[in-house]
Amino acid sequence: MPCVVIYDGPKNKESRDILEQQGFEYIILPVDPLIGAKREFLDPVEMVVFNADVMKVLSICGVVRLLQEELDKITEQLSSEESEKELELPHIFAKPEKCIEHAGFSTPSAKAKALAALHIVTKVAQVNYPVCFTLKDLDQICLTAAAGHEIMGTAAHLATQAR
Length: 163
Fold this sequence. Notes:
Elements: E1 3-7, H1 13-21, E2 24-28, H2 44-60, H3 63-79, E3 91-93, H4 96-100, H5 108-133, H6 138-162
Parallel strand pairs: 1-2, 2-3
Helix pairs in contact: 2-5, 2-6, 5-6
């Protein structure tokens, strides 16, 4: 049975090749940030604010549209009279430059701001990863998580300017 994996990793070519060898198609989204929280410190308001910023960037900057278009292609293939043919399924590593092509910007300055927002978002997970998995000191956890979330807010602001 065909299966399309939509995920934020693996980011290296060798791992994607292994996915293909195992029969998986994929859309890898390296622009998906990681919320900077440990379960015991989760603040529901901050989670909602962070996720709202994430969705703002991913929707304005073409990520959601890329997913929609690819899933629509699959649906169309399945519902067409030619559904007996082998499905053409995606193998997409959705770097910021690929995502932005689906955003529909008509001016270079708007496109540049949106692309910058996506590049910023790719850094959020790098900042927040230690918060979730390596840092032990509460003060350092809070400071680093706050910094990651501020970065996310900046990306959302930039995406809004692009729109």
